Amino acid sequence: MAVHADRESLEISDDCSDDGFPRSPPGYSYRMNRYARPLVDYARNEWQARTKYTALSVSPDASDSPQWVQMFMSMVRAPRFRRYAIVYLLLLVSCLGGWLFLSPRLEEQEALLHSLDPSTKDDVGGWFGMNALPRFDNITHLRDLDTSLLPAVKAQKDGQSSSRRLIFIGDVHGCKDELELLLDEVSFDHDRDHLIFAGDMINKGPDSPGVVDLARQYAASCVRGNHEDRVLLLRHDMEASNTLSPDSDGDISPELFFGLKKRERALARQLSNEQVQWLDACPVILNVGQIPELGQVVVVHGGLVPGVELDKQDPASVMNMLTIDLDTHVPSSTRNGTKWTKLFNKHQSLLYSSLKDSVPDPKSQVMTVIYGHDSKNSLSLKTYTKGLDSGCVKGGKLTAMVVEDGGKQSVIQVRCRNHLKE
């Protein structure tokens, strides 16, 4: 037993150092020197392999930078910082875009309110329409529509009741085929429907006399547009100067007849006396009357100056206006200014707001204008202005606005050929 114990102790002593501790295995000191770093440096978790965390590692040269630089770079490299930066940048761009979009409109609304402020009237010497206007011979300035033609339930016939409709039609410009197609689309019924043309029925297109004959056939109403006005004035001047005959066209000086084109002179000769008389009877302003939800409905070709009585509106401006000066309320046939519809809608909106709490039916006290003339803006349906010129003669559309009982409105359009290229 002793021998065995000594032998065992000898074996143990071979594996121990002189101080009695076990000896290190071969290469142990080398491995210890190699891995003499904190254990956390050797953790191999999944988060270390992700790309978004690799940016968090500090570069070897980072310790050479100032502390504030290191802090700033650590924030920039953080994924959450980048997300917040993108969100705030989008908010900034949205606010800037919204301001650029809203700022002109806010300025425009302020200008409209200032223009309608009665206290500014004296500053400019009075608004347009406050003084007497010149009268024009051979022109019907204002006419009222027969009230029996307004949308209303007719008396029962054969056990059935039918309602009337008003069909307002934009600038036709001699496009008879498209007009007939539009009447089919609206299911026009001469017994219950009444047509109202918003001017410029003639000129430019292929069949102006045919359009006039169709309107006469259906006993339609109309207003005088700037093209009717030009052709009719030309016709009367030709009659007065004995140049109505086509043979006399070569004797016309360039200054005569306002320099109108040969096509317009040909149309002035082409119209019959009956057609001319019918067009001459078209008023500049047609007062349709009261229609529910629309108030007092008026039809003109160009536009109206807000706040001016119908009988004081300038006929030439009514047929030609596109814009209006906000300081003086003087209308213009150019596009250098504010659209007259913006000032008119603002004026009627303020009027309605002032009456809605003081009268039983404030809608009846406001005015809605149905007009043509402005093909550049095409169909433009606002609260108190309805623009129906959608450029039929130049390949656009021909528009009809149908008004039924109760003021219900619907818009129907047909496509047109470009007759200006033919």
From TrEMBL:
Q: Where is this region: Disordered?
A: 1-25
- Record keyword ATP-binding present: no
Q: Where are the transmembrane segments?
A: 81-102
Gene3D superfamilies per the record? 3.60.21.10
Q: Where is the Calcineurin-like phosphoesterase domain?
A: 165-351
Extract the PANTHER family matched here: METALLOPHOSPHOESTERASE, ZINC-DEPENDENT ENDOPOLYPHOSPHATASE
Is Nuclease among the key words of this record? no
What is one Gene Ontology biological process annotated in the Swiss-Prot or TrEMBL record?
Answer: polyphosphate catabolic process
The record's listing under Pfam families reads: Metallophos (PF00149)
Q: What is this protein's name?
A: Calcineurin-like phosphoesterase domain-containing protein
- SUPFAM superfamilies according to UniProt: Metallo-dependent phosphatases
Top-rank taxon of the source lineage equals Eukaryota
Which GO cellular component terms are attached?
cytoplasm
InterPro entries found in the cross-reference section: Ap4A_hydrolase, Calcineurin-like_PHP, Metallo-depent_PP-like
Q: Which organism is it from?
A: Aspergillus pseudoviridinutans
| Sequence ranges of Basic and acidic residues compositional bias | 1-10
